[in-house]
Amino acid sequence: MQTFDLGAEGLRALNSALHALKGQTNMTSWEVVNPKGAHAIAAGVDAPVDITVRGSTGYYCAGMNKQATIRVKGSAGPGVAENMMSGTVIIDGDASQYAGATGRGGLLVIKGNAASRCGISMKGIDIVVHGNIGHMSCFMAQSGHMVVLGDAGDALGDSLYEAKLFVRGSVKSLGADCIEKEMRPEHYEALEDLLRRGEADGKARPEEFRRYGSARKLYTFNIDNASSY
Amino acid sequence: MTDFPRTPPRFSATFTPAINAEIRRAAATGIYDIRGGGTKRHLPHFDDLLFLGASISRYPLEGYREKCATDVWLGTRFAKKPIHLDIPITIAGMSFGALSGPAKEALGRGASASGTSTTTGDGGMTEEERGHSKTLVYQYLPSRYGMNPDDLRRADAIEVVVGQGAKPGGGGMLLGQKISDRVAMMRNLPKGIDQRSACRHPDWTGPDDLEIKIMEIREITDWEKPIYVKVGGARPYYDTALAVKAGADVVVLDGMQGGTAATQDVFIEHVGMPILACIPQAVKALQDLGMHRKVQLIVSGGIRTGADVAKAIALGADAVAIGTAALIALGDNDPRWEEEYRKLGTTADAYDDWHEGRDPAGITTQDPELFGRFDPVLGGRRLKNYLKVMTLEAQTIARACGKNHLHNLEPEDLCALTIEAAAMAGVPIAGTNWVPGRSGGF
Fold first, then answer.
1. pLDDT in the model for residue B123
2. pTM value?
3. What ipTM was predicted for this assembly?
4. How many CB pairs under 8 A join A and B?
5. Looking at residue B442, what is its pLDDT?
6. Do A102 and B196 count as a contact with CB atoms less than 8 A apart?
7. pLDDT, mean over chain B
8. Domain coordinates of chain A in residue numbers?
9. In angstroms, rounded to a whole number, what is the distance separating the alpha carbons of residues A66 and A81?
10. A-chain residues within 8 Å CB-CB of B173?
11. What is the C-alpha separation between B284 and B287, in angstroms, rounded?
12. What is the spatial distance between Cα A41 and Cα A89, in angstroms, rounded to a whole number?
């Protein structure tokens, strides 16, 4: 276990050390102490390492992560795991705006609640939120899965493309072109896997969820749909 | 019946035949006009400025003997690896998707042969472009299509795009006709559907967030890459100041003459400011912050000749970027395709339906038959020739003004032909020492 005191050594030294791990097989377990809400902690990591951040983080923690498993023992600021490519990011507390924005792969787990625009423009990432998500979540979401054990705020899935959304609680309102869809066997199967990987298999069962997806009516620009936007 | 003189038919200056035709088109279709390119209206521009040249008070340099340097450093503020270009004329961001793969390759070839950079666009980085571009600027756009850390790291600079001159405040739409299998795969969307490009970034709002976003990108790339911030010409003083405050190495300022792959004609023609009005405001912001020449300024929008390059630099820019002019150099809108332009209901030099993907020149298309017509080697050579001519033209003017580097050109070398141009550029009307608006500031 490598212990890194962020308060003493600074962000540049941390990220530089983590980036240097690419292609290495030793030093696979890291602990970051004294994060104190710093921004861009463990951004741009590209190695199969485990990193535990003991405390809350600022903006863009684990941004563009590849391969690494990053666990935050606290809450995360805006844009956690933005544009993640692969790996796993687990937030024990809450996450601020834009969690998982534009993520292209990997798994983001938020044990608490996520604020607005969670999963905005997601492009393949899987997101499991144990609590609630805020308004405009999954706006223009292209692909991947969003699983919400709690409730969803206003305008869920506005201008959605092909991402699949599963919500167990209430949805305050659906955004333009987002509709409820039938749960088929493959969806229950996918959801079961996501709940298991999202450390939520003991908290909820697949049959408790509803599925939401794109009506695909806005896929081709049509002036008669202008009032829908 | 007496044959009195009759009042001849008189056209309205307000309801012109062109306006009336557009009203009829709108009434028949119910949709606004969408097109590519930049504004087509007449605007105060570099043509409204003249260089004074050397005389008794200033020495000229000998045209074919004395050196006039053209190189430029970009990204010297924070980046560990700033860019050094041989000429101050760069290729503006244009996407693969909007342009064909061979066209992107040709831009890379021409730029590299000229010692300058080219720029990706919405849709990510292609191998054609990276492979043929010695210096490649990677755009970081609101859509984040194809965005990934590997391409960030193999770029030579990163351009955070906040806006563009053709449509400041607007996003974009790549229509389904141009969404081939390859474009769809790169953007992670179904083939054949219209693809929206957002007008705002998904994970930051405002200049304070932008500062943190830039810091994140620097961390991911280990502070090696110059980071540009590109804005459309709307409020250039404040946008430039805020970009500097957010930590930009380079500000890219695009006037309303700058082109786009596609947007509403009403947007192109009625939003934004001409580049002539933008440059002095941006330069003043840099000077007020003590950052002129420390944070570099690249300007674009209607740059066509070496004279335009020299005038932009004289007003305080460090470099320029060209988009539309580069496409024309490659062969866009060439009269050799006139017969096909007529079949599309247009004519050479007026074709702007780039979004439809039926470009006879094979440049703004994803149709294999059409882009197969375009030779990227020849296209690259044409672009290189054009860049060479522009550079020689700019040097010719600079030497005549007694400057041994293009960057030594200054506003004092200029005068204006019109009151509008004088007020915008902040230089006196020819033959006077009057700078309209100078006493009132901006």
1. 82
2. 0.95
3. 0.96
4. 102
5. 45
6. no
7. 94
8. 2-228
9. 10
10. 221
11. 5
12. 12
Structure tokens at A15: 């990220």
Fold of A2-228: Pectate Lyase C-like (2.160.20)
A220 to chain B, any CB pair closer than 8 A? The answer is yes
Q: What is the pLDDT of residue A226?
A: 63
Residue A202, both tokens: 């003991």
* Matching residue, tokens 């700033």: B82
Q: Residue B171: its chain A contacts at CB < 8 A?
A: none
Domains of chain B: 36-425 (3.20.20.70)
Nearest CA in chain A to B189: A142
Cβ atoms of residues B405 and B67 within 8 Å: no
- Give the integer Cα–Cα distance in Å for B133 and B127: 10
Put simply, whether B435 touches A (Cβ < 8 Å) is no
> Closest to A44 (Cβ–Cβ): which among B149, B194, B203?
B149
pLDDT of residue A138: 98
A173–chain B nearest CA distance, Å: 21
Residue B328 has pLDDT above 90, yes or no: yes
Q: Answer whether B8 touches A (CB < 8 Å).
A: no
Strand, helix or coil for residue B303: coil
Q: How far apart are the first and last CA of chain B?
A: 64
pLDDT one-digit tens code per residue, B367-386: 999 999 999 999 999 999 99
Query: pLDDT tens for residues A15-28?
Result: 999 999 998 778 89
